[in-house]
């Protein structure tokens, strides 16, 4: 939703982080594979451009980024955690480690988790006013990230 705000280095780090995160529970679900492909497309990064970055290097590089960029990345990682319908202990531990490194407050972590639970409810709720629902979700996400 906000990935277009990341610069190319942040985008590359984000994709590596998503790839690492998706495998942390020793499962690389089809939903996670599709999501990673969607992220690459959204960020305009091809498979040929992808370069592997170690987790510690990712964290070091992203610590130099703005708080907003780190919040966007954490926000998207929570979405990845929930995309396969399961929230494994390994995923929780990974998110805790990232949130600690990125200085994401407890209240922001709760707000992000609640957002995704609400997102699921709103997204599944079919109405003729779907555009307004999507805009409402975008506004809610924006308020969390600020």
Quick structural summary:
The chain has 146 residues and is mainly alpha-helical. It is built from 7 helices and no strands. The radius of gyration is 15 Å and the shape is globular.
Secondary structure layout plus pairing:
Layout lengths: L7 H15 L7 H14 L11 H9 L3 H17 L5 H13 L4 H19 L5 H16 L1
Structure description:
By secondary structure, the protein is an all-alpha fold. It contains seven helices and no strands. Helix 1 (8-22) runs antiparallel to helix 3, helix 1 runs parallel beside helix 4 and helix 4 (67-83) crosses helix 6. The longest helix is centred in the C-terminal third of the chain and has 19 residues, at 106-124. The radius of gyration is 15 Å and the shape is globular. The model has no long low-confidence stretch (mean pLDDT 85).
User: What spatial form do the alpha-carbon principal axes imply?
Assistant: globular
Distance between the termini: 14 Å
**Main pleated sheet:** none
Query: How large, in whole angstroms, is the Cα Rg?
Result: 15 Å
Average pLDDT number: 85
Strand content: under 5%
Which secondary-structure class do the elements indicate? mainly alpha
**Helical percent range?**
over 70%
Number of helical segments?
Answer: 7
- Note poorly predicted spans: none
Number of DSSP-assigned strands: 0
| Strand and helix order | HHHHHHH
